[in-house]
Specification:
Layout: H1 2-41, E1 53-60, E2 63-70, E3 76-83, E4 93-95, E5 100-106, E6 120-126, E7 132-141, E8 147-149, E9 156-157, E10 163-168, E11 177-182, E12 187-193, H2 194-200, E13 207-213, E14 219-226, E15 229-237, E16 243-247, E17 258-259, E18 264-268, H3 277-290, E19 294-300, E20 306-312, E21 322-323, E22 328-332, E23 338-342
Protein backbone atom coordinates (compact mmCIF):
# COMPACT_ATOMS: atom_id res chain seq x y z
CA UNK A 1 0.00 0.00 0.00
CA UNK A 2 2.83 2.37 0.87
CA UNK A 3 4.60 1.50 -2.39
CA UNK A 4 1.44 2.32 -4.44
CA UNK A 5 1.03 5.64 -2.60
CA UNK A 6 4.72 6.48 -3.26
CA UNK A 7 4.28 5.75 -6.98
CA UNK A 8 1.22 8.02 -7.11
CA UNK A 9 3.15 10.76 -5.34
CA UNK A 10 6.08 10.41 -7.72
CA UNK A 11 3.78 10.46 -10.78
CA UNK A 12 1.93 13.51 -9.45
CA UNK A 13 5.19 15.30 -8.81
CA UNK A 14 6.50 14.46 -12.29
CA UNK A 15 3.25 15.69 -13.87
CA UNK A 16 3.44 18.93 -11.89
CA UNK A 17 7.05 19.46 -12.94
CA UNK A 18 6.08 18.78 -16.57
CA UNK A 19 3.29 21.39 -16.40
CA UNK A 20 5.65 23.90 -14.79
CA UNK A 21 8.27 23.17 -17.44
CA UNK A 22 5.82 23.74 -20.26
CA UNK A 23 4.64 26.96 -18.64
CA UNK A 24 8.20 28.22 -18.19
CA UNK A 25 9.05 27.26 -21.79
CA UNK A 26 6.01 28.92 -23.39
CA UNK A 27 5.68 31.94 -21.08
CA UNK A 28 8.11 34.14 -23.06
CA UNK A 29 6.36 33.15 -26.30
CA UNK A 30 2.92 33.99 -24.88
CA UNK A 31 4.21 37.29 -23.50
CA UNK A 32 5.82 38.10 -26.86
CA UNK A 33 2.58 37.30 -28.71
CA UNK A 34 0.62 39.50 -26.30
CA UNK A 35 3.03 42.37 -26.92
CA UNK A 36 2.68 41.89 -30.68
CA UNK A 37 -1.10 42.15 -30.35
CA UNK A 38 -0.72 45.38 -28.41
CA UNK A 39 1.41 46.82 -31.20
CA UNK A 40 -1.00 45.59 -33.84
CA UNK A 41 -4.14 46.85 -32.11
CA UNK A 42 -2.48 49.94 -30.72
CA UNK A 43 -3.86 49.66 -27.23
CA UNK A 44 -7.25 50.97 -26.12
CA UNK A 45 -8.30 52.96 -29.19
CA UNK A 46 -11.66 54.76 -29.18
CA UNK A 47 -14.12 54.42 -32.06
CA UNK A 48 -14.30 58.23 -32.10
CA UNK A 49 -11.66 60.78 -31.13
CA UNK A 50 -12.13 62.37 -27.72
CA UNK A 51 -11.83 66.12 -27.18
CA UNK A 52 -8.25 65.75 -25.96
CA UNK A 53 -7.18 63.50 -28.86
CA UNK A 54 -5.98 64.01 -32.40
CA UNK A 55 -4.95 61.68 -35.23
CA UNK A 56 -1.84 61.90 -37.39
CA UNK A 57 -0.80 60.04 -40.54
CA UNK A 58 2.76 58.71 -40.86
CA UNK A 59 3.73 57.17 -44.17
CA UNK A 60 6.13 54.24 -44.23
CA UNK A 61 6.89 52.99 -47.75
CA UNK A 62 3.59 51.49 -48.97
CA UNK A 63 1.96 51.49 -45.54
CA UNK A 64 0.68 54.14 -43.15
CA UNK A 65 0.56 54.30 -39.37
CA UNK A 66 -2.52 56.09 -38.04
CA UNK A 67 -1.50 57.39 -34.63
CA UNK A 68 -3.84 58.76 -31.96
CA UNK A 69 -2.17 61.36 -29.74
CA UNK A 70 -3.14 62.99 -26.50
CA UNK A 71 -3.16 66.74 -27.28
CA UNK A 72 -2.11 67.69 -23.75
CA UNK A 73 1.04 65.58 -23.31
CA UNK A 74 1.60 64.62 -26.98
CA UNK A 75 1.75 60.95 -25.98
CA UNK A 76 0.63 58.15 -28.31
CA UNK A 77 -2.46 56.47 -26.90
CA UNK A 78 -3.22 54.07 -29.78
CA UNK A 79 -2.45 53.33 -33.42
CA UNK A 80 -3.19 51.00 -36.31
CA UNK A 81 -1.53 50.17 -39.62
CA UNK A 82 -2.95 50.38 -43.15
CA UNK A 83 -1.17 48.86 -46.13
CA UNK A 84 -1.66 49.49 -49.84
CA UNK A 85 -1.38 53.28 -49.76
CA UNK A 86 -0.14 55.31 -52.75
CA UNK A 87 3.33 56.57 -51.75
CA UNK A 88 3.82 60.37 -51.76
CA UNK A 89 0.22 61.16 -52.66
CA UNK A 90 -0.32 64.89 -52.05
CA UNK A 91 -3.71 64.40 -50.31
CA UNK A 92 -3.98 60.77 -49.16
CA UNK A 93 -6.31 61.15 -46.16
CA UNK A 94 -8.80 63.26 -44.23
CA UNK A 95 -9.56 62.90 -40.51
CA UNK A 96 -12.89 63.55 -38.80
CA UNK A 97 -14.15 62.94 -35.28
CA UNK A 98 -15.31 59.36 -35.84
CA UNK A 99 -13.82 58.46 -39.23
CA UNK A 100 -10.56 58.51 -41.15
CA UNK A 101 -10.86 58.50 -44.96
CA UNK A 102 -7.79 57.07 -46.73
CA UNK A 103 -6.93 56.35 -50.37
CA UNK A 104 -5.71 52.79 -50.95
CA UNK A 105 -4.59 50.75 -53.96
CA UNK A 106 -4.79 46.98 -54.45
CA UNK A 107 -2.93 44.43 -56.61
CA UNK A 108 -0.34 46.95 -57.75
CA UNK A 109 2.63 45.71 -59.79
CA UNK A 110 5.42 48.28 -60.17
CA UNK A 111 6.31 46.90 -63.62
CA UNK A 112 2.79 47.01 -65.02
CA UNK A 113 1.60 50.04 -63.03
CA UNK A 114 -2.08 50.80 -63.45
CA UNK A 115 -2.29 48.19 -66.15
CA UNK A 116 -2.00 45.37 -63.60
CA UNK A 117 -4.93 42.93 -63.90
CA UNK A 118 -7.55 43.42 -61.13
CA UNK A 119 -5.83 46.59 -59.90
CA UNK A 120 -8.00 49.16 -58.09
CA UNK A 121 -7.81 52.49 -56.27
CA UNK A 122 -10.41 52.94 -53.55
CA UNK A 123 -11.39 55.33 -50.77
CA UNK A 124 -11.67 53.52 -47.44
CA UNK A 125 -13.21 54.77 -44.22
CA UNK A 126 -12.00 53.66 -40.78
CA UNK A 127 -13.07 54.19 -37.22
CA UNK A 128 -10.20 54.74 -34.80
CA UNK A 129 -10.10 51.13 -33.65
CA UNK A 130 -8.84 50.29 -37.16
CA UNK A 131 -12.04 48.76 -38.53
CA UNK A 132 -12.42 49.79 -42.17
CA UNK A 133 -14.61 49.42 -45.22
CA UNK A 134 -14.44 50.43 -48.87
CA UNK A 135 -16.40 53.64 -49.43
CA UNK A 136 -15.81 54.57 -53.08
CA UNK A 137 -14.09 53.18 -56.19
CA UNK A 138 -11.87 55.67 -58.04
CA UNK A 139 -10.64 53.34 -60.77
CA UNK A 140 -9.90 49.70 -61.58
CA UNK A 141 -8.65 47.32 -64.23
CA UNK A 142 -10.35 44.19 -65.49
CA UNK A 143 -8.71 40.75 -65.43
CA UNK A 144 -6.85 41.63 -68.66
CA UNK A 145 -5.41 44.86 -67.30
CA UNK A 146 -7.73 47.24 -69.20
CA UNK A 147 -7.89 50.47 -67.17
CA UNK A 148 -11.27 52.00 -66.28
CA UNK A 149 -11.37 55.39 -64.52
CA UNK A 150 -14.48 56.59 -62.70
CA UNK A 151 -12.84 59.51 -60.82
CA UNK A 152 -9.33 60.87 -60.38
CA UNK A 153 -7.77 59.71 -57.10
CA UNK A 154 -8.45 62.89 -55.13
CA UNK A 155 -11.31 63.92 -52.85
CA UNK A 156 -12.64 66.47 -50.35
CA UNK A 157 -15.32 65.77 -47.74
CA UNK A 158 -17.19 68.53 -45.92
CA UNK A 159 -17.15 68.86 -42.13
CA UNK A 160 -20.54 67.25 -41.57
CA UNK A 161 -19.59 64.37 -43.90
CA UNK A 162 -22.65 64.49 -46.13
CA UNK A 163 -20.89 65.47 -49.39
CA UNK A 164 -17.72 64.38 -51.13
CA UNK A 165 -16.19 66.31 -54.06
CA UNK A 166 -14.46 64.42 -56.87
CA UNK A 167 -12.80 65.23 -60.19
CA UNK A 168 -14.03 63.25 -63.17
CA UNK A 169 -12.11 62.68 -66.43
CA UNK A 170 -9.50 65.17 -67.77
CA UNK A 171 -9.27 68.58 -69.53
CA UNK A 172 -10.33 68.32 -73.15
CA UNK A 173 -12.78 65.52 -72.45
CA UNK A 174 -16.46 66.25 -73.01
CA UNK A 175 -17.37 64.92 -69.53
CA UNK A 176 -14.58 66.65 -67.58
CA UNK A 177 -16.27 67.83 -64.37
CA UNK A 178 -16.38 68.41 -60.64
CA UNK A 179 -18.78 65.93 -59.04
CA UNK A 180 -20.54 66.50 -55.72
CA UNK A 181 -21.76 63.17 -54.43
CA UNK A 182 -24.00 62.39 -51.48
CA UNK A 183 -21.65 60.40 -49.26
CA UNK A 184 -24.35 58.31 -47.59
CA UNK A 185 -26.21 57.06 -50.66
CA UNK A 186 -23.34 57.53 -53.20
CA UNK A 187 -25.54 59.42 -55.67
CA UNK A 188 -24.60 62.58 -57.56
CA UNK A 189 -26.03 65.75 -56.04
CA UNK A 190 -24.42 68.19 -58.50
CA UNK A 191 -22.10 67.94 -61.51
CA UNK A 192 -20.23 71.03 -62.73
CA UNK A 193 -19.19 70.30 -66.31
CA UNK A 194 -16.13 72.20 -67.49
CA UNK A 195 -17.72 72.81 -70.91
CA UNK A 196 -20.78 74.41 -69.28
CA UNK A 197 -18.62 76.61 -67.07
CA UNK A 198 -16.42 77.85 -69.93
CA UNK A 199 -19.45 78.33 -72.14
CA UNK A 200 -20.86 80.80 -69.60
CA UNK A 201 -17.40 82.30 -68.89
CA UNK A 202 -15.47 82.14 -72.21
CA UNK A 203 -12.31 83.71 -70.75
CA UNK A 204 -11.91 80.92 -68.20
CA UNK A 205 -9.48 78.10 -68.84
CA UNK A 206 -7.37 75.62 -66.92
CA UNK A 207 -7.59 72.43 -64.90
CA UNK A 208 -9.81 71.98 -61.86
CA UNK A 209 -7.94 72.02 -58.57
CA UNK A 210 -9.71 70.79 -55.43
CA UNK A 211 -9.11 73.20 -52.54
CA UNK A 212 -11.23 72.98 -49.38
CA UNK A 213 -14.58 73.37 -47.66
CA UNK A 214 -15.44 76.13 -45.23
CA UNK A 215 -15.54 75.00 -41.61
CA UNK A 216 -19.34 74.88 -41.52
CA UNK A 217 -19.38 72.63 -44.61
CA UNK A 218 -21.56 75.10 -46.55
CA UNK A 219 -19.18 76.23 -49.30
CA UNK A 220 -16.58 74.41 -51.35
CA UNK A 221 -13.61 76.12 -53.02
CA UNK A 222 -11.86 74.98 -56.19
CA UNK A 223 -9.55 76.75 -58.61
CA UNK A 224 -8.63 76.71 -62.29
CA UNK A 225 -4.90 76.49 -62.90
CA UNK A 226 -2.42 76.18 -65.77
CA UNK A 227 0.92 74.79 -64.66
CA UNK A 228 1.93 76.75 -61.57
CA UNK A 229 -0.33 79.72 -62.36
CA UNK A 230 -3.83 80.04 -60.90
CA UNK A 231 -6.35 81.83 -63.13
CA UNK A 232 -9.52 81.85 -61.00
CA UNK A 233 -11.27 80.48 -57.94
CA UNK A 234 -14.70 78.89 -57.74
CA UNK A 235 -16.89 79.00 -54.64
CA UNK A 236 -19.81 76.57 -54.75
CA UNK A 237 -22.65 76.61 -52.24
CA UNK A 238 -23.96 73.18 -51.29
CA UNK A 239 -27.64 72.36 -51.82
CA UNK A 240 -28.32 75.50 -53.92
CA UNK A 241 -25.26 74.68 -56.10
CA UNK A 242 -24.68 78.35 -56.86
CA UNK A 243 -21.24 78.79 -58.50
CA UNK A 244 -19.28 82.03 -57.97
CA UNK A 245 -16.37 82.68 -60.34
CA UNK A 246 -13.68 84.87 -58.75
CA UNK A 247 -10.69 85.87 -60.96
CA UNK A 248 -7.31 85.53 -59.26
CA UNK A 249 -4.87 88.46 -59.33
CA UNK A 250 -1.92 88.08 -61.70
CA UNK A 251 0.91 86.39 -59.86
CA UNK A 252 -1.25 83.90 -57.94
CA UNK A 253 0.40 80.49 -58.01
CA UNK A 254 -0.07 77.00 -56.64
CA UNK A 255 1.98 77.76 -53.53
CA UNK A 256 -0.21 80.69 -52.50
CA UNK A 257 -2.72 80.00 -49.74
CA UNK A 258 -6.46 80.56 -49.68
CA UNK A 259 -8.49 81.59 -46.67
CA UNK A 260 -11.83 79.83 -47.41
CA UNK A 261 -13.70 81.56 -44.58
CA UNK A 262 -13.15 85.13 -45.80
CA UNK A 263 -11.94 84.74 -49.39
CA UNK A 264 -8.39 86.03 -49.02
CA UNK A 265 -5.51 84.76 -51.17
CA UNK A 266 -1.79 85.53 -51.00
CA UNK A 267 0.21 86.48 -54.11
CA UNK A 268 3.31 88.45 -55.11
CA UNK A 269 4.53 90.47 -58.08
CA UNK A 270 7.85 88.66 -58.38
CA UNK A 271 9.01 86.58 -61.31
CA UNK A 272 6.42 84.08 -62.40
CA UNK A 273 7.59 80.48 -62.36
CA UNK A 274 8.91 79.46 -65.78
CA UNK A 275 10.25 75.98 -65.08
CA UNK A 276 13.41 76.87 -67.04
CA UNK A 277 16.43 77.94 -64.98
CA UNK A 278 18.18 79.89 -67.79
CA UNK A 279 15.11 82.05 -68.43
CA UNK A 280 14.63 82.63 -64.70
CA UNK A 281 18.27 83.78 -64.35
CA UNK A 282 17.88 86.24 -67.26
CA UNK A 283 14.71 87.67 -65.75
CA UNK A 284 16.45 88.08 -62.37
CA UNK A 285 19.26 90.08 -64.05
CA UNK A 286 16.72 92.30 -65.81
CA UNK A 287 14.89 92.98 -62.53
CA UNK A 288 18.14 93.85 -60.77
CA UNK A 289 19.20 96.24 -63.54
CA UNK A 290 15.80 97.94 -63.61
CA UNK A 291 15.59 98.18 -59.80
CA UNK A 292 12.25 96.37 -59.63
CA UNK A 293 10.84 95.17 -56.33
CA UNK A 294 8.84 92.09 -55.38
CA UNK A 295 5.64 93.04 -53.50
CA UNK A 296 3.88 90.44 -51.36
CA UNK A 297 0.13 90.98 -51.05
CA UNK A 298 -2.99 89.71 -49.40
CA UNK A 299 -5.98 90.02 -51.74
CA UNK A 300 -9.70 89.65 -51.06
CA UNK A 301 -11.39 87.80 -53.93
CA UNK A 302 -14.83 89.26 -53.06
CA UNK A 303 -14.03 92.94 -52.41
CA UNK A 304 -10.79 93.11 -54.48
CA UNK A 305 -9.14 94.80 -51.49
CA UNK A 306 -5.34 94.57 -51.76
CA UNK A 307 -3.11 94.69 -48.66
CA UNK A 308 0.65 95.15 -49.12
CA UNK A 309 2.41 92.99 -46.52
CA UNK A 310 6.10 93.17 -47.56
CA UNK A 311 8.46 94.39 -50.30
CA UNK A 312 11.53 92.33 -51.27
CA UNK A 313 14.56 93.05 -53.43
CA UNK A 314 14.73 89.38 -54.35
CA UNK A 315 12.25 88.82 -57.23
CA UNK A 316 12.15 85.08 -56.58
CA UNK A 317 11.60 85.14 -52.81
CA UNK A 318 8.83 82.75 -51.68
CA UNK A 319 7.38 83.54 -48.25
CA UNK A 320 6.06 80.02 -47.48
CA UNK A 321 2.68 81.42 -46.36
CA UNK A 322 0.19 79.45 -44.28
CA UNK A 323 -2.98 80.27 -42.42
CA UNK A 324 -2.66 79.48 -38.72
CA UNK A 325 -6.37 80.20 -38.26
CA UNK A 326 -9.15 82.04 -40.07
CA UNK A 327 -7.62 85.32 -38.90
CA UNK A 328 -3.84 84.76 -38.76
CA UNK A 329 -1.45 84.44 -41.72
CA UNK A 330 2.14 83.33 -41.13
CA UNK A 331 4.91 84.03 -43.66
CA UNK A 332 8.70 84.06 -43.80
CA UNK A 333 11.18 86.85 -44.58
CA UNK A 334 14.55 86.38 -46.38
CA UNK A 335 16.28 86.83 -43.00
CA UNK A 336 14.53 83.68 -41.75
CA UNK A 337 12.27 85.68 -39.46
CA UNK A 338 8.65 84.55 -39.31
CA UNK A 339 5.90 87.14 -39.20
CA UNK A 340 2.17 86.90 -38.47
CA UNK A 341 -0.44 89.17 -40.01
CA UNK A 342 -3.82 89.36 -38.27
CA UNK A 343 -6.97 90.24 -40.20
CA UNK A 344 -8.96 93.14 -38.82
CA UNK A 345 -12.28 92.33 -37.18
Amino acid sequence: MTMIYSKKLILSTLFLLLVLGVAVYYAPILIKKENQDVVKNGGAAPSCLKENQMAIYEENNKAADIIILDKINNQKTAHFFIDGIIPDHYHPYEFYKCKAYIIRQFNYDSKLGRGTPNYSIELWSYNYTGEGTSTLLFSRTDDRGNYISFYNDDFRINSIENYIVLEKSYPGSDNYALVFKNLAIKENAFVLLYRDLTSEYPNLQGTFGLKEWTKDGKYFWANLFEGANVNAFLRIEKDTWKVEVLPAPKGTMGGDVLNPEFGYITYDTGILWTGIDIIAEELEKEWEQEGKKNNFYLYNLFTKEQILLETFNDPTWFTKPRWLSGFELEYQLPSGETKIYKLKD
